[in-house]
């Protein structure tokens, strides 16, 4: 059987890794796929660099549309990143009847509904294992491995940059700005790290996983996003003393609200009990915890970025598409796990209606009656306290009062915080971090 011909868009870190792994393991891959998989054409901005990677036997062009419009190309691999250009290229490839493999989580989070609908109409596949958690096969697990289950929740450490920063802050007691600079020097963080540290990258990935887990459209615009740039080293230290670790967590789950069933879709710093496996995921590693009715809890762990870990997922998609290229489109695994006509539009729950526990740190003047005022305000809002810690952060005049609450609705904690911040003894804003037991 003749080899599948692949057009590669982008020969950066992941593109080069994909080409190199495919070349190195070509015989093993051919045995698994049932036929050869060859990259025969690539598009890149830096033509000399691309030629140095792929050698003389591969056509190199600066025009990515030349790849997607080439009638000899069977599968287009999109690894250039961004939004609008990749959207145009992917839609053109689909219109030309080509299968697509992409690692572009931002593209799918924003334009996935349009892209999947176009692919369905044309009878081609869009594969995207590498878009979430790098080399960790979480998409295949959610879409295929857990297909017998009703999934209850997905919670993940899905951004290696922020996990590295939080790990260093905890282990070395350093502040955020210092560790971010180190992360940039080590290559873990970009020169402009906004998407990572403000939670946007994690929200792109969570949006995709939520759609697959629950059979809903991708709805990035409805995700709640809060990053780690405002976290202080003392909050990480206090959390540790209380038996918790702080991670940037993406959480999506089925939940019941006053108006019926909804889906939570949120990214934010989260206290997790230190005894949980996911709380002990350190450095730039990723981990995703899935709760489902039949299998219970399952944890998926590994490298979430890097040339070869991500290339591993790209090539796995290439093998899957190669195996299924001649299969009736209606017999293939649906893009978002559920048949397109069986998707449901369950409402994304507003943050005000989320129910969880909270870590509150209140910086106060050391005077009589402060604790009584705080507990009264919380009690009036129907919020009970689980634990209290009092600390002197560097002087003998003021105090940090740290409280862990039992579960309550976010709107209740918002109202209580607003009243606490009006107390004469309270200095500045209340620090609020959500807490999840993940039990």
From TrEMBL:
Record domain ACT: where: 359-435
Keyword Oxidoreductase tagged: yes
Statement: the UniProt record of this protein carries the keyword Transmembrane: no
Enzyme class of the recorded protein, top EC level: oxidoreductase
Entry keyword set: Amino-acid biosynthesis, Methionine biosynthesis, NADP, Oxidoreductase, Threonine biosynthesis
Span of the signal peptide: none
Pathway per the UniProt entry: Amino-acid biosynthesis; L-threonine biosynthesis; L-threonine from L-aspartate: step 3/5; Amino-acid biosynthesis; L-methionine biosynthesis via de novo pathway; L-homoserine from L-aspartate: step 3/3
Enzyme Commission code(s) on record: 1.1.1.3
InterPro entries membership: ACT-like_dom_sf (IPR045865), ACT_dom (IPR002912), Asp/hSer_DH_NAD-bd (IPR005106), HDH (IPR016204), HDH_cat (IPR001342), HDH_CS (IPR019811), NAD(P)-bd_dom_sf (IPR036291)
PANTHER family to which the protein is assigned, alphabetical: HOMOSERINE DEHYDROGENASE (PTHR43331:SF1)
Similarity-based family: Belongs to the homoserine dehydrogenase family.
NCBIfam families attached to this UniProt entry: PRK06349.1
Protein name per Swiss-Prot or TrEMBL: Homoserine dehydrogenase
Organism: Massilia phyllostachyos
């Amino acid at each position: 059987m003749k080899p599948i011909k692949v057009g590669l868009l982008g020969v950066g870190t992941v593109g080069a890794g994909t080409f190199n792994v495919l070349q190195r393991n070509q015989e093993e891959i051919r045995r698994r796929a049932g036929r050869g998989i060859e990259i025969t054409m690539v598009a890149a901005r830096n033509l000399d660099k691309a030629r140095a990677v792929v050698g003389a036997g591969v056509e190199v062009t600066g025009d990515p549309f030349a790849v997607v419009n080439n009638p000899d190309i069977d599968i287009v691999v999109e690894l250039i990143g961004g939004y609008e250009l990749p959207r145009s290229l992917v839609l053109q490839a689909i219109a030309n009847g080509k299968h697509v493999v992409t690692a572009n989580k931002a593209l799918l989070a924003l334009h996935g509904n349009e892209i999947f609908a176009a692919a369905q109409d044309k009878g081609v596949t869009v594969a995207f294992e590498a878009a979430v958690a790098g080399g960790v096969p979480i998409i295949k697990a959610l879409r295929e491995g857990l297909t017998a289950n009703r999934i209850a929740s997905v919670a993940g450490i899905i951004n290696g940059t922020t996990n590295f920063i939080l790990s260093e802050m905890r282990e070395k007691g350093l502040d955020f700005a210092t560790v971010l600079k180190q992360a940039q020097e080590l290559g873990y963080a970009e020169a402009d790290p906004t998407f990572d540290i403000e939670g946007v990258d994690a929200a792109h990935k969570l949006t995709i996983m939520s759609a697959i887990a629950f059979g809903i459209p991708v709805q990035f615009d409805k995700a709640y996003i809060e990053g780690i740039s405002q976290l202080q080293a003392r909050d990480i230290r206090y959390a540790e003393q209380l038996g918790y670790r702080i991670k940037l967590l993406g959480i999506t789950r089925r939940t019941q609200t006053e108006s019926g069933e909804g889906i939570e879709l949120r990214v934010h710093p989260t206290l997790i009990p230190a005894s949980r496996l996911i709380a002990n995921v350190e450095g730039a590693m990723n981990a995703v915890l899935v709760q489902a009715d039949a299998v219970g809890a399952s944890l998926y762990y590994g490298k979430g970025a890097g040339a070869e870990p991500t290339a591993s997922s790209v090539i796995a998609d290439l093998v899957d598409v190669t195996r299924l290229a001649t299969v009736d489109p209606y017999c293939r695994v649906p893009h978002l796990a559920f048949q397109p006509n069986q998707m449901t539009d369950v409402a994304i729950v507003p943050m005000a209606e989320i129910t969880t526990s909270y870590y509150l740190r209140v910086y106060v003047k050391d005077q009589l009656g402060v604790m009584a005022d705080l507990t009264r305000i919380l009690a009036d809002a129907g919020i009970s306290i689980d634990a209290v810690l009092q600390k002197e952060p560097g002087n003998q005049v003021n105090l940090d009062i740290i409280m862990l609450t039992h579960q309550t609705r976010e709107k209740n904690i918002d109202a209580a915080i607003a009243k606490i911040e009006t107390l004469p003894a309270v200095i500045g804003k209340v620090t609020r971090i959500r807490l999840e037991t993940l039990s």
